[in-house]
Design goal:
The protein is mostly helical. Helix content is 73%, strand content 5%. The chain is built from 13 helices and four strands. It has a two-stranded antiparallel ribbon. The protein is globular and about 70 Å long. It starts with a helix and ends with a helix. Keywords: Chemotaxis, Disulfide bond, G-protein coupled receptor, Glycoprotein, Membrane, Receptor, Transducer, Transmembrane, Transmembrane helix. One of its GO terms (cellular component) is plasma membrane. Belongs to the chemokine-like receptor (CMKLR) family. Belongs to the G-protein coupled receptor 1 family. It is a multi-pass membrane protein.
């Protein structure tokens, strides 16, 4: 960790991308004003932001925090219910295994949201140290990939399990599904591992920043590494999965049109909602990530990204609480199971409360106050 004065005096050319304003990756320090140094924008604090722009940016940040909080609450409850239902209340099948792993990915994802909320609330000051800077970013990126990959696996599996393909695909067992789940997690971890290498912290004007330190002294190397990371993240983490989900969705819609099956029609509508939610939640984030690569060419673009990155990141987070609603809670059988489970829990709680009250009433009252039993004996 180095101070800003040391870095500036040494002619530091490390990259501080604008996506620092995204708690998802936290790459860029929020300082008052930029000055161009080499190929990237840096901040010397000598210029002042326009007051209106600062207020507008604060508004976007407040909105993003609200969305983070909603995502955290709904994500913990929704994904927790999915894990409980698929892991403990229903028979273990290939489908339930996909859903459980998706829910685990989203559940871990939202559990780390309080760190991101704290980061935005503190005006992008990281107060959890370098190790947590690396770990938090690694877990978020890991579960971004895992969540997207499991959505893709579910879409492909549902298509292959229908019709003539289904008779051949049903040879897939729970054991093989576990192997595929392991491959998804290992692939996600491998794609996320660069975060553990490049994440770093440093102090700038009293703020501790968690960012991607691609190279402190070589702007060309930093630019190359940044470009590669964004390209891989956008291609592998969005374009390819979205293409697969879209293609399977279109093929399912075609089957619905041909067969007229009500069951297929219901699933097709759900898949359409999944595709739309996936695109609306993730497309803005990846578009902003690509725009960030050209941030050094436009001050206007810089301010747009400053204001918008927390907002588009919050939309990406929101997908993690939408998934259980679309995939599980829209299922009639699951709703019935959830309703009956809630009723059973309520009945059991009332029964335990009633027993507790009965036991309390039967306890002998201490002191010189006679109990019902002693009064009865006196009368005899």
């Amino acid at each position: 960790m180095q101070s800003d004065s040391v870095l500036i005096e040494a002619g530091w050319t490390g990259e501080l991308p604008i996506s620092h304003f995204s708690p998802f990756f936290m790459d860029y320090a929020e300082m008052e004003s930029p000055t161009e140094h080499g190929e990237y924008y840096y901040f010397d604090g000598e210029l002042e932001e326009e007051k209106g722009g600062h207020v507008q940016m604060d508004t976007f940040h407040i909105i993003s925090v609200v969305i983070y909080c909603i995502s955290f609450a709904l994500g913990v409850i929704g994904n927790g219910l999915v894990i409980w239902i698929t892991g403990f209340k229903t028979k273990r099948t290939v489908k339930s295994l996909w859903l459980m792993n998706l829910a685990v990915a989203d559940f871990v994802f939202v559990l780390f949201l309080p760190l991101s909320i704290d980061y935005v609330v503190r005006s992008f000051h990281w107060s959890f140290g370098q190790v947590m800077c690396k770990l938090n970013s690694f877990v978020l990126v890991l579960n971004m990939y895992a969540s997207v990959f499991f959505l893709t696996v579910i879409s492909i599996d549902r298509y292959l399990s229908l019709g003539d393909l289904g008779r051949r695909w049903r040879c897939s067992t729970v054991g093989r599904a576990w192997v595929l789940c392991g491959c998804v997690w290992l692939t996600s971890a491998g794609l996320s591992s660069p975060v553990l290498v490049f994440r770093d912290t440093f102090e700038f004007r009293g703020q501790t920043v968690c960012y991607n330190n691609f190279h402190e002294h070589d702007a060309d190397t930093a630019a190359m590494r940044h470009t590669v990371m964004v390209a891989v993240r956008t291609t592998v983490g969005f374009l390819l999965p979205f293409s697969a989900i879209t293609v399977t969705g279109v093929l399912l819609a075609y089957r619905v049109h041909r067969s007229g099956s009500v069951r297929l029609s219901t699933f097709s509508k759900m898949m359409s909602a999944v595709i739309l939610a996936f695109f609306l939640c993730w497309a803005p984030f990846h578009i902003f990530s690509l725009m960030e690569l050209s941030v050094h060419s436009s001050r206007t673009l810089l301010h747009v990204l400053q204001a918008g990155f927390p907002l588009v990141t919050s939309l990406a987070f929101f997908n993690s609480c939408i998934n259980p609603l679309l995939y599980v809670l829209c299922n009639k059988k699951v709703r019935q199971l959830l309703r009956s489970s809630c009723l059973n829990i309520t009945k059991q709680s009332l029964r335990e409360l009633s027993q507790s009250v009965s036991v309390t009433e039967c306890v002998t009252v201490p002191g010189n106050v006679p109990s019902e039993a002693s009064v009865a004996m006196t009368k005899l």
